Write a sequence for this structure.
């Protein structure tokens, strides 16, 4: 059996047994918060549990490293939708220690791409077209600095309402301990 076959078989039973009922909620976050965090498997349930959030309390946006790289990319769009359409009143950026994006090397990823069939010519074509592939595929050296950068990108976005507090935190994926990097309430006072 393939993974997909297993998923679909389980899902059939899940629906028949109405196991979905315990997850019923609205599309609006009860706590009016949107969280940007990493896609790391250790954080799937840990982030919300460590903050005392349950299903339906928050909106969660995930990507590699909890990074906002582009002011008009899909991450920023998702955060804006959460604020303007889904009633989020605060933003939490939650990076984590031992993140795979920490000190990630574009050379390592490009080599892995080549091993899986991507031709060097494709990478060269992108570079020649002005796409900064190496920068785009690079990680960060400090998770705290990365969180600060993402907070600043969100807070300074021309379409983000000024009154929204944007907080920055770092979580330990082993214990769930949170370290405060940016207190969005204090940032509000300074603006």
């Amino acid at each position: 059996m393939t993974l997909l076959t297993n998923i679909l078989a389980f899902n059939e039973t899940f629906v028949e047994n109405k196991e979905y009922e315990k997850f019923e909620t609205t599309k609006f976050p009860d706590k009016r918060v949107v969280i940007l965090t990493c896609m790391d498997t250790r954080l799937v349930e840990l982030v919300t549990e460590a903050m005392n959030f349950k299903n339906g309390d928050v909106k969660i946006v995930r990507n590699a490293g909890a990074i906002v790289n582009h002011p008009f990319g899909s991450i920023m769009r998702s955060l804006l939708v959460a604020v303007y359409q889904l009633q989020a009143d605060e933003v939490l950026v939650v990076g984590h220690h031992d993140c795979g994006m920490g000190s990630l090397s574009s050379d390592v990823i490009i080599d892995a791409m080549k091993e899986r069939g991507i031709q060097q010519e494709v990478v060269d074509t992108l570079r020649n077209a002005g796409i900064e592939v190496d920068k785009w595929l690079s990680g960060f050296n400090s998770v705290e600095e990365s969180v600060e950068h993402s907070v600043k990108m969100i807070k300074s976005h021309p379409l983000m309402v000024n009154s929204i507090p944007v907080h920055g935190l770092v979580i330990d994926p082993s214990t769930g301990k949170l370290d405060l990097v940016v207190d969005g309430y204090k940032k509000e006072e300074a603006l």
The chain has two domains: 28-99+142-190, 105-138. The CA atoms of residues 31 and 57 lie 5 Å apart. The mean pLDDT is 95. The longest strand covers residues 90-96.
